[in-house]
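Bug #77: duplicate submission created two jobs. Keeping one. Sequence:
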Amino acid sequence: METIDNIPISKVKRASKLITTGAKVGANYLKYYGSKVIGDEEKAREKLNEANAEDIYDSLKNLKGSALKVAQMLSMEQNILPEAYVEKFSLAQFSVPPLSPALVSKTFRNYFGKSPSELYDSFDSKSTHAASIGQVHQAELNGEKLAVKIQYPGVADSISSDLAMVKPVAIRMFNLKGKDSDKYFKEVEQKLMDETNYRNELAQSIEVAEACKHIPNIRFPKFYKDYSTDRILTMSWMDGIHLSEFAKVNKDPEKANRIGQALWDFYMYQIHVLKKVHADPHPGNFLVDDEGNLIVLDFGCMKEIPDDFYDPYFELADNAKLNDPSVFEQKLYELEILKTEDTDNEKEFFSDMFHGLLTVFTRPFNNEVFDFADKRFFAEIAQLGEGFARETQKRKLNGNRGSKHFLYVNRTFFGLYNLLHQIGASHVKIGSTHHAL
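Kept job's structure:
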């Protein structure tokens, strides 16, 4: 794979890269309109999506940082983007061009005043994984194999300017209107800032690993403070295959259910007991070892869940409260889905729409055991999500709805549901977490 000797850091250089990409996308549209006139519109649209996904990803993979992280987040939203984008953007999870060995060595000297070979007994200058914010190298110290995560230079400094460039696209895609939408972008910005602070990730990793070590069939790396800084994180090397690879090769339903149960219990314990959650549930953050244990990696993105959001959110997971009109309406106001300035038409539309969404979305919580391998469940969610987007656009309604906490809590649940679906977890015991509710 190609390596990168430098990353555009200044706002001007990063913006000019995106402008060049915009020109390529514009040219793709011209080809599309020409093909549409003389041929099959559906095939022309498919080619357009493939060309745009390719050009956008090729630009973002070299910029790295926040812009690429947004692509990674979108790759999990399989109900929002065309398949070509999901497929291409999913590469941002663990397969992008790495830094060159010279740039890796320079980064170490900046933070430790030493080269990697001076810190560790051995250090592989070729990375094993490269993603949106950092890349991982294998090292060895005192006979133990280590994983060393190095953050790309300039990532933390470019977050605000990157999001400013991405914002107009997101506003158009999700039909956000008014200054109120700023709260969502501030939430994303804060979480990205957290992810670039490796000392913060180190503390969170140690805390969550200690709190969740009792959960069956789950393992965590050991973390090394003396070999970690704001931008470099050292942990024990964990052998295993990525969850997405496990999903492709596993033929044992019992193993799929064991991994699925570990995933579910891990997330429910965090949410209902710790009131904070690993909010980056994509396959690149999980491994499965030879014994069939789930290994959890990367605690950079943790979302704290305040009580004033947690309480109404999970009260609506109870069918009795969801189907009580007065309780349901009260909770929608508490969750900022309904607003005092709404017209009767808006109130009726959003109440009906969210009742339908929540009825499907919370179905697992109203069963002792749930089949996440059932395609019909995901088809229902997709259909309702598409209906919401289509109707808000058609009626010219503001899609800007809900507390800012929805952003990462919903992302966590959609990501978790998708992971369970991918691995074919057909028998997940939901009742084991009812005590926490």
